[in-house]
Amino acid sequence: MFSPQRQGGDSVDRTALWWLRTWALGALFLATVEGAMLLKASEAPGPAALSILTVTASGVLALLLFRDVPRLSLPRAPRAPGAHALYALMATAHEGLWLLDASGATVFANARLAAMLGLDESRLRGRCATDFLAENSADDLATVLAPGAFRSGIARDLCYRRADGQLGWAIVSGRPADAGLGLPEGTLLLLTDITERKKAELALAALKADLETRIRLRTADLTRANEQLRTEMGVRLEAELAKAESDLRLHEIMSTLPIALFLKDPTSRITMMNAACEEAFGVPLEHANAVDQRLPPGLRGRYLQADQRAFRQRGLVTSEEPIWNHTREEFRRHVTYKKPVFHPDGSPAYLICLSVDIEERKRTEEALASSLAQLRQLTGHLETIKDEERRRIASLIHDDLGQNLLALKLEVGQLHIRTAHHPTAFARRVAGAVTTIDASLRAVRSIINDLHPSTLELGLVAALEWLLGRFRMRSDVATTLNVSGGEGEDLDRRITSAIFRAVEESLNNVQQHAAARNVRVRLNIYHFMVGVTVEDDGSGIRDKHPRGFGLRGIHERARALNGWVKVDSTPGVGTRLRMMLPRVLPVPDAGPEAEVVEDGRPGAGASAASASLCGAGAAAASR
Ligand SMILES: Nc1ncnc2c1ncn2[C@@H]1O[C@H](COP(=O)(O)OP(=O)(O)O)[C@@H](O)[C@H]1O
Ligand SMILES: [Mg+2]
Question: Where is the composition biased (Low complexity) (predicted)?
Answer without folding.
Answer: 604-623
